[in-house]
Specification:
Blueprint lengths: L7 H54 L3 E5 L4 E5 L3 E5 L6 E3 L10 E5 L5 E5 L5 E4 L21 E6 L2 E14 L2 E13 L4
Antiparallel strand pairs: 1-2, 2-5, 3-4, 5-6, 6-7, 8-9, 9-10
Length: about 190
Amino acid sequence: MKRRGSTLVEVMTATVLVSMLIISALALLSTSLRSFNKTDKRIEMSDEGAIALRKISEELRSAVVVDILSSGREVAFELPLRNTHVDPVTGEYEYATPVVTDGIDRRYYVSSDGDLMYKVGTSAPRRIMAGVMDLDPDPESAHYNQPYPVFSLEKLSNRQSLRITVIAERETVSGTQRNRMSTEALLRNVQ
């Protein structure tokens, strides 16, 4: 009876083929992880931006006084005065009638570090969002390679609205990620 074993050429061929399969699988895994990281950072930026823009627009909708400062990089505003007693129907502190300001200075602004900040009265500012860009990187934008207005007032028929535009940037393993977000808030109490 003749014993048949593997020759050195067959063992080397099998080793090369298995090695190529392992290298291909690792390359595919590495590409997938980079893509996952890139997508994860973009989702994180979008979520942070959406939450920040929603918070700003919800608060500014009821503002009584709104001023745009620092070439659109800052908005100062005051909210309506609220009653001191709870409304029995809604269970909330309703606005005083007629609508007047509460006299508390509030601001959203972009700091020199690129952070979107929120400040109420004399309290310390809080960071709302990080990585806000100074210059608009979009070649098709009217503000290409220039400072862009984060806050701008616009007229909609007989009402004022506030446009909020934020371009954020983050470094990831696979490079720089940018995200442009914009929303518009109709100002109910500003004519």
